[in-house]
Amino acid sequence: MKKSLTNNFDIVAPVYDRLSRLVFGRAQMNAQIHPLKNIPPDSHVLIVGGGTGWILESISRQYNSGLKITYVEISGKMIKLAKTADTGDNLVEFVHAAIEGYQTELKFDAILTPFLFCNFLQGTTALVFNKLHSFLKPKGLWLIADFTVNEGKGKWWKSLLTKSMYLFFKLFGIVEGNALTNMQPVFFAHQYVLKEETFYYRGFIQSAVYIKP
């Protein structure tokens, strides 16, 4: 029977950050850190797929208190690591769940999705986007960082690297996705406004902040 791919990074949790830095240096981290300045003070923030939790420490260095953070992560081992992060005086609720099944009546001022959509097949991408869209307040901010092959030159090596990454993670039975989705048209189709956009790793990594209408 074919093994189900659950987008769960338990198997690589202890070494994931080191693997990222080995391949991309600090590009993945910088793509997530740079837009944090846009988070409004005293806001309620949803982080989906935050991994080992280092992003919580980066947030606390800019906002040592006043934030309420809901941290949704499917990997139990990632959650365990994230709980050791220094979150300052911010209030953090850790939720061990797949975002596809997560339900809440809360509305958030900002949503962070670091390298989330690259895990999904197109159908799951649409489901997750629509769910998060419903969680975000009007005029709320959506901070996204992900891989892209759409920016600048070198599409051939970006495509080759993308295929290699998917092959690596599928060998460990981790991700269901097999191709990158260009999320910008999805945001624009829902009338989001692009506030800022930055590229890293020669255009392979995109960081963006969108404002919900």
Automatic annotation (TrEMBL):
The keyword Methyltransferase applies. It comes from the Bacteria. Residues 45-140 form the Methyltransferase domain. One of its GO terms (molecular function) is methyltransferase activity. Pfam families: Methyltransf_25. Coiled coil: none annotated. Keywords: Methyltransferase, Transferase. The keyword Transferase applies. GO terms for biological process: methylation. Gene3D superfamilies: Vaccinia Virus protein VP39 (3.40.50.150). This is Class I SAM-dependent methyltransferase.
